[in-house]
Design goal:
4 strands; four-stranded parallel beta sheet; mainly alpha; 13 helices; binds pyridoxal-5'-phosphate; 2 domains; 298 residues; single chain
């Protein structure tokens, strides 16, 4: 947070939180989920004693992953929509942070007997350090679903190649993915979750992880307001992009280059794989797109 530009605190989620009139209590930075949960409980006790009804959403993996339930439901809807649209889904690519989204989708597939591979693109921790957490979450989710579904650990596919220096930290692949989504399809991605996840999808496609005619589902998990917390970082990236376009084309001025550029593929994407284009341009994409945030709030 400290390294983030000032607009990070003044826009995106911090601004929305203030607009909604929420009182924000800060907890010192760090990854100590247990201490953070302890602080939450102490705060909830104070608020409760004052007559309010606190609801705690814990951070630690030893608590039931209630958020995953929304995705169990969403996956049933996804499969139904796929069937209605006569679309065979070959793989799902989603962001994997706490893994509630990831495991919820896997649980939904398991419940319905579908073995579609689900690629979780790591956005918070590397794949190795997530092992124990994932195991614990799997166990808690199993209990939450009354033992109805067991997800084999081998079904949890994690790819941490797009994490970069860490949670919320930018990567060239993320900048490229966010630009591609916006320029090609007015698809607004956020730099923390969906942007890195889309970078993962593009990377997987480029390295031939899927058959050329595979139908990929990319659940957009929201978060676009966070984009505006990264304005200056994007401006810098776009400026660099323009410079490399100029260098590549041997043109003299940024203005000339930009003005003459047709809107479309960002640089470096000339060899952009037809599969991602297929994904971006698929007519059925909007039909199958889910409003996952709405489903989660049900
Ligand atoms: C945009 C976005 N996508 C996804 C998630 C959730 O990811 P996970 O379920 O892996 O924690 C979040 C959580 O904050 C989010 O803000």
């Amino acid at each position: 947070m400290r390294e983030m530009p000032p607009e990070y605190r003044q826009s995106g989620s911090p601004l929305l939180t203030r607009l909604h009139g929420a009182v924000v209590h800060h907890y010192p930075e760090g990854e100590d989920e247990h201490a953070a949960d302890g602080a939450l409980e102490a705060l909830a006790a104070r608020v409760g004693a004052a007559g309010s009804k606190p609801y705690i959403i814990h951070f630690g993996p030893e608590h039931p992953p209630f958020g995953a339930l929304g995705y169990v439901d969403a996956t049933a809807e996804l499969l139904r929509q796929g069937q209605d649209a006569d679309l065979k889904i070959d793989a799902i690519v989603l962001p994997s942070g706490s893994a509630s989204t990831h495991l919820g989708v896997l649980a939904g597939l398991a419940l319905l007997g579908a073995d579609i591979p689900v690629y979780g693109i790591c956005i918070r921790r590397d794949a190795k350090s997530r092992g124990e957490r994932i195991a614990l979450r799997l166990e808690k989710l199993h209990a939450l679903l009354d033992g109805m579904v067991t997800i084999n650990r081998s079904r949890v596919l994690l790819d941490d190649a797009y994490l970069g220096p860490g949670y919320g930290k930018t990567t060239p692949e993320m900048f490229e993915a966010v630009s591609a989504g916006a320029a090609l399809e007015t698809l607004l991605l956020d730099p923390i979750y969906s942007g890195k996840c889309f970078a993962g999808l593009m990377g997987l496609v480029r390295c031939g992880a899927f058959a050329a005619d595979a139908n990929l589902v990319f659940p957009h998990t929201g978060g676009a307001p966070a984009l505006f917390g990264y304005t200056s970082l994007f401006e810098h990236a776009l400026e660099q992009q323009t410079r490399s376009e100029i260098a590549a084309k041997g043109l003299r001025s940024a203005k000339t280059s930009r003005d003459k550029q047709p809107r479309g593929l960002p640089p470096g994407m000339a060899s952009y794989d037809s599969q991602v284009r297929r994904f971006l341009n698929a007519e059925k994409r909007t039909r199958i797109q889910l409003n996952i945030n709405r489903l989660c709030m049900r």
